[in-house]
C-alpha cells in the first residue's frame, strides 16, 4: 500500500523561489498583529476591492459565508450535510449551522492571525451567536469596518456597469467607458448588463440591506468597535483610510 507521503510533492520538487517566497511571507506574517474583522456595506460599496488587500497585508483568512457553505456541502461535512438538507427542502440554512461552519474555519492554521468576515452577521441574533463562539475561544471581534456610502452614489456606480461576458472585463458608462458604447474594446463583441445591476433590483437590495444591517451596526457601535469608512472615495483613498483605522 502506497504511503500518503508518496502523493504529496517532495520538497526537492518544489522550486526554490516558491519556498523562499512562502518563507518570506510567513516571516512577514509572524510580525503582524492579530486582527478579527467584520466588513459591512451595501452591494457596490467596495468591500470586494478592499478585502483582498486587507487579507494580504495582515495575513488573515477571508471568510465569505456563501462560499464556505458551498464548500461544506461539497465536502459532505456533518454541517454541510445539514445545510444541504435545508437547501433541498427550500429552507434557509439556520444561523447555528452557519456559525458552526465559521467556528470550524477560524480554527484552521490559515486563520491563526485572524479573519475577515464578509456577508455575516446579517442580523443581531447572528452577531450574538458569533460573539458566543468567539468567547469560547477566548477571542473577540476587533473592528467592524462599515463601508458607508450614499444610496444615490451607489446607484450611479452600479447601474452604469457593463460587462463583457466571456472575459469578465468590466466597463462603466461614466468612470471607465468602452471606446464604442456597448461594445468590448478587445473583441468588438456586445457588452451586457447583469440583471442585478438595474436600478429596480438595486433599490430592493438596498432596502433589505438597511433594514437588516443597520441594527447590526448599532449592536457593534455600542461596543465601540465600528469604524465608518468614506466608501464614496476612490479605492486608493479608502485603502489609506482602512490602514489608518487598523493601525490605531
TrEMBL record:
Enzyme Commission (EC) number: 2.7.4.3
GO molecular function, one term: AMP kinase activity
Domain of life: Eukaryota
Keyword Glycosyltransferase recorded: no
Domain Adenylate kinase active site lid, chain residue ranges per copy: 161-196
Keywords, comma-separated and alphabetical: Kinase, Nucleotide-binding, Transferase
Sections of the chain in a coiled coil: none
Gene3D superfamilies to which the protein is assigned, alphabetical: P-loop containing nucleotide triphosphate hydrolases
Catalytic activity: AMP + ATP = 2 ADP
Keyword Phosphoprotein assigned: no
Subunit structure and binding partners: Monomer.
Job description of the protein: Catalyzes the reversible transfer of the terminal phosphate group between ATP and AMP. Plays an important role in cellular energy homeostasis and in adenine nucleotide metabolism.
Family that this chain belongs to: Belongs to the adenylate kinase family.
UniProt name for this protein: adenylate kinase
